[in-house]
Amino acid sequence: MKIYSRAQIYEADKITAEKESLPSINLMERAGGYLYEWVHERLQGGKVPIKVFCGIGNNGGDGMVLARYLVENNYNVTTYVVNYNTKRVPDFLEAYDRLKSVTKNWPIVLTEESVLPEISPQDIVIDAIFGIGLNRAPQDWVKKLFSAINASNAYVLSVDIPSGMYMDRSPEEGDVIVLPRFTLSFQAPKLPFFLPATAPFMQAWDILDIGLDPEYLAKTPTDVELIGKQEVIQMYKSRHQFAHKGMFGHSLLIGGSYGKMGAIVLASKAAMRAGSGMVTAYVPQIGVQILQTALPEVMAETDNFNGKVLEEIDFQTEANAIGIGPGMGTDPKTVKAVEGFLKAQKNPMVIDADAINIIAAHPALLEHVPNLSIFTPHLGELERLIGTWKDDFDRLEKTSKFAKTHDIIIVIKGAHTITTHDMKLYINDSGNPGLATAGSGDVLTGVITGLLAQGYHPMEAALMGVYFHGRAADIAINQYGIEGLMAGDVIEFLGRAYMDLFAKPEEPKAP
Ligand SMILES: NC(=O)C1=CN([C@@H]2O[C@H](COP(=O)(O)OP(=O)(O)OC[C@H]3O[C@@H](n4cnc5c(N)ncnc54)[C@H](OP(=O)(O)O)[C@@H]3O)[C@@H](O)[C@H]2O)[C@@H](O)CC1
Ligand SMILES: Nc1ncnc2c1ncn2[C@@H]1O[C@H](COP(=O)(O)OP(=O)(O)O)[C@@H](O)[C@H]1O
Ligand SMILES: [K+]
């Protein structure tokens, strides 16, 4: 699914109005109408007090249209104009007039001088104060209103985006954002819905299709995409009946050290479950027995030393894809081995954990990393690789520039893992906090390596791998719960994640 920028949303709005030869207020009427349908479906005429807070821009206009529908349908509504600016926009004014024409209870105008209204926990609050147009810090009295809404314990429904949330920067000290129970966003999700500093405000949300011009939406390329089941289905290649293991590639997982063999065991097993025809693990001698006992399906290769860490990386396996890093450590002998290894590589590979740390500490090695290699850092590893950042948006910009400069793919792991290549961002839509457990990153490395070995393009392997990893965890928590989930369980559910691609949605239960 495409995620549009603010400029693209405004453009879509303009083009839709032009194409339909309708005044832009009609789009606002449509948006407000859909908001009303959503609310009405849930309240069914109930007399709960509804407080609609409207700004003076188009977001406020949407709120005004909703308020008018609520008034016309005899709901118990009080409407407020949060008059934060003298520049009331024309469509807002029109919607405001239309509301005033249907009721004697005109909206209450709030300014800096006003006493803010009491909001009780039984109220429903509609937050239509700021939408995607917020571009500077609101005045203190407006922030006080946001705080009062948040402190009220009322059910808060935000229109389009929680007021106070910016489209292009994370909150800073002193910023206040409305914390809604639900957000109804128009047409498509927005980037901040997925970023660590702002996603916690999006506890629950849905998209309202307000009919922006489908042609414009379809043909406009976006810098950001959301990757879910539909996108992964397009990349998936099914197997034919006469397939044999030689057709699905040989994965080589390099890593492990004394006390950290589990990481490479997990990665190797995950590569098998992801469908790699064969898997070999290249580990220090100390780890061979552990690996062979844990995973009879996986072959082992080892170095010619007898230490606790890898001291050389020299293998016979003719691998279709290599994943390096899990449990490997950063011993100086291993660093030397990685240097030698990287200089000999030509094909894209998966670079994780200590392999990232080694490259971060020896940036000259980057020039030997094959193009389109996939780095899978968590935020700590990413910072070592690219340096610090100001906020979530700055991190995305710096990471995508770094990936572009070195022609690599970077998978930024987190609650919403974001993959970047060629200045584009791909946000993953699967996964849950059950994955916040030791070893789940190692599993991801194995899955991506296994997909790469099967001949998927590195971008497909990265996006599909991240999706399947998260989806497997989503299915697994039905059995293990979020707290109970372990990395090894995710591997056991990878097959189910594949099957789920084509699973029919459950039939609704008979009444
Ligand atoms: N486009 C679409 O497809 C559709 C959009 N729709 C709706 O429109 C919403 C976007 O509307 P919007 O552009 O009018 O912006 P909104 O958030 O209402 O802010 C109003 C203005 O406030 C100003 N301002 C900013 N920060 C400020 C501050 N701190 N303190 C004081 N003032 C501040 C700033 O103007 P400025 O003063 O910078 O000129 C800004 O323009 C969108 O979220 C959705 O709900 C739907 O109707 C249907 C289709
Ligand atoms: N709250 C969360 N929601 C969804 N996925 C998560 C969450 N926390 C962690 N993950 C995922 O779990 C994995 C953790 O990887 P990593 O930090 O490398 O763990 P480890 O080093 O223990 O293997 C990543 O794929 C990350 O995206
Ligand atoms: K809002």
From TrEMBL:
The keyword Transmembrane does not apply. Residues 9-218 form the YjeF N-terminal domain. (6S)-NADPHX binds at residues 58-62, 131-137, 160, 263, 327, 378, 442. The keyword Metal-binding applies. Its EC number is 4.2.1.136, 5.1.99.6. It comes from the Bacteria. AMP binds at residues 413-417, 441. Keywords: ATP-binding, Isomerase, Lyase, Metal-binding, Multifunctional enzyme, NAD, NADP, Nucleotide-binding, Potassium. Its cofactor is Mg(2+); K(+). Residues 228-501 form the YjeF C-terminal domain. K(+) binds at residues 59, 127, 163. Binds 1 potassium ion per subunit. Transmembrane segments: none annotated. Bifunctional enzyme that catalyzes the epimerization of the S- and R-forms of NAD(P)HX and the dehydration of the S-form of NAD(P)HX at the expense of ADP, which is converted to AMP. This allows the repair of both epimers of NAD(P)HX, a damaged form of NAD(P)H that is a result of enzymatic or heat-dependent hydration. Catalyzes the dehydration of the S-form of NAD(P)HX at the expense of ADP, which is converted to AMP. Together with NAD(P)HX epimerase, which catalyzes the epimerization of the S- and R-forms, the enzyme allows the repair of both epimers of NAD(P)HX, a damaged form of NAD(P)H that is a result of enzymatic or heat-dependent hydration. NCBIfam families: yjeF_cterm (TIGR00196), yjeF_nterm (TIGR00197). In the C-terminal section; belongs to the NnrD/CARKD family. Homotetramer. This is Bifunctional NAD(P)H-hydrate repair enzyme.
